[in-house]
Design goal:
By secondary structure, the chain is mostly helical. Helices cover 88% and strands 0% of the residues.
Length: 73
């Protein structure tokens, strides 16, 4: 095999590898973006739930219900 054929084959192999790596990097980047969006959504939901828990905890209705014994006592 002439030397230029070997170089040509190696160059093609490098180009194919680079193309695959570009695709993988793009796919990984898309996954990271999606995970950040999911994380942001979950953090907002947790924040709302914490707010609701704090509201319920501070609500006088809960305190009066908690102090009232069940009817079977």
């Amino acid at each position: 095999m002439p030397p230029h054929d070997d170089i040509k084959r190696r160059l093609i192999d490098i180009e194919v590898l680079a193309s695959h790596q570009e695709t993988m990097i793009r796919d990984l980047s898309d996954m990271v973006v999606q995970q950040w969006q999911t994380l942001d959504s979950l953090l907002r939901k947790v924040g709302r739930l914490e707010g609701q828990i704090n509201e319920k905890r501070d609500s006088p209705e809960i305190e009066s219900v908690a102090e009232t014994p069940p009817p079977h006592y």
